[in-house]
Amino acid sequence: MASTLPAGGVLAELVAKMEPHWHSDWAWSHDEELVLRLCRRFGLSALCEISAERDPGFLPTNPALRGLSVTVNDIDQHELDCAPQGLAKACFNIAGDLSETDARPGRFHRMFSRIVFEHVDGVERAWNDIHTLLKPGGVALASFPTIHAAVFMVNRMIPEKLSRAIVHALYPARRDGGSDPKFAALYDHCVSSKRSLRPMLEKVGFSDIHVQPFWGHGYFKRMPVIREADDLFNHLAARIDWRLTSTNAFVLVRKAA
Fold it and tell me: E strands, the chain, where?
């Protein structure tokens, strides 16, 4: 019988069944649901949240975690120390030399990250490390802002010192020592084009690859006229799948079983 799966494979089918909305708000409100669906679909139990810092997506009190083991990772031991108690913690650089850490190959069934990859220096190395850490048949999800959006492009172009000053002025919680500190954004491979990402992900060793783009952001929420104009533009861009104007993306990959 001929396969009826979308061109993207099993992962694309699973995302399509969730009927994703074009706006980025949908991505941020459904990423945890997607993680749990992936766990159920592929029978995954050992999860790792990459660079969870002090604010992991899954808390130990979450009843949806029953039967699952969750490890939170970060490059900074201080950030891990600030994370909630009751979760396993692993300090290593996802884009570094894993041989120098206690990160065992094939340790996890499922790895995911939220708003992390734009800060990673060496995204191809990060995907390679993820492939190493996943068990056969394991799945990884990365959600990140894309460099295409004007607001993120400006953030990439201006000096980090100026960017940091602006963010600190507008969002006090993001100052150093706050509950949501700012980190330098590099946007390496932060695009929503499957054509651009596939060669790198296939080189690493992934086969089933799905890239889900989103449009829209909340940076203009206090600017009524600009907000409506930007929302209309993003809606139209989403209708024609104009990925050069996307603002965010999910990248889903699976390691061969």
Answer: 46-49, 69-74, 88-91, 108-114, 134-145, 206-214, 248-255
Whether residue 133 contacts residue 111, with contact meaning beta carbons closer than 8 Å, is answered with yes
Tell whether the model's pLDDT for residue 211 goes beyond 80: yes
DSSP per-residue codes, 27-88: HHHHHHHHHHHHHHHHT--EEEETT-TT--SS-TT-GGGTT-EEEEEES-HHHHHHSPTTSE
Q: Structural domains in the chain?
A: 10-146+189-255 (3.40.50.150)
Alpha-carbon distance 55 to 96, whole Å? 22
Per-residue model confidence as pLDDT tens digits over 64-90: 777 888 899 999 888 888 888 888 899
- This prediction has a pTM of 0.85
